[in-house]
Amino acid sequence: MTVRVIFVSPAIGPELRQARFADEASAYGGGSVENGAAADDRDAADGGDALDGAGVRAARALRPDLPASSRRFVSPSARCRRTAEELGLADAVAEPELRGCATGRWRGRTLDEVAAEEPEALMAWLADPAAAPHGGESVRQLCARVAGWLDGTAAGLTGRVLVVAEPDAVRAAAVHALGVPDQAFRRLDVPPLAVVELTGRAGRWNLRLG
């Protein structure tokens, strides 16, 4: 039997706009944007909210285009959970294996801040998928974790599955489906609300384009 796993990345919010490493205090349990007009007027720089007004509107606009699904999963971060709600997937099951890459002491800091304070460590992290100079998780470990979810949980399902997942997890899933080295992780860009579909059958994954 074939399973179709459709990944959707989170809508735009403060952390994505600021290129900030996710802070577990906010990303995994922080506040949410208010409903209605107040959400549309929320300042994008307000780091206490998972999504900003533009992100809420974009997620709501995408909602009618998503296909029906038999199962729904979501990364446990606040921005993924809020995106799932705006996409009409409030019943999605939180899946810890699809969380973003754990970045240790860099949590809550911007890419520019880390580049200024730890330039050599940042360069090592960007160049080597096995490196984890922040004391967290390496890209290689992330890719192995997501591959395990695909080959375990997802491979045991049938039909269409919708997953709202962190961009890191979506990139890792694409790396696994294509069977390319984990160095390719850095060559994949996942914008807000990107839709990426994988089809799995008989232990093999394909990346579907278009």
Binned, the helix content reads: 25-40%
Number of helices: 9
Provide mean pLDDT, rounded.
88
Major sheet characteristics? 6 strands, mixed
Concise structural overview:
Helix content is 34%, strand content 14%.
Write the layout of secondary structure elements.
Elements: E1 3-8, H1 14-17, H2 24-27, H3 37-40, H4 53-62, E2 71-74, H5 78-86, E3 93-94, H6 111-117, H7 119-127, H8 139-151, E4 159-164, H9 167-178, E5 195-201, E6 204-208
Helix pairs in contact: 6-7, 8-9
Name its key features.
210 residues; alpha/beta; six-stranded mixed sheet; 9 helices; 6 strands; globular
What do these coordinates show?
- With about 210 residues, the chain is an alpha/beta fold.
- It has 9 helices and 6 strands.
- It has helices at about 15, 25, 35-40, 55-60, 80-85, 110-115, 120-125, 140-150, 165-180; strands at about 5-10, 70-75, 95, 160-165, 195-200, 205-210.
- Strands 3-2-4-1-5-6 form a 6-stranded mixed β-sheet.
- The protein is globular and about 50 Å long.
- Residues about 25-50 have low confidence and may be disordered.
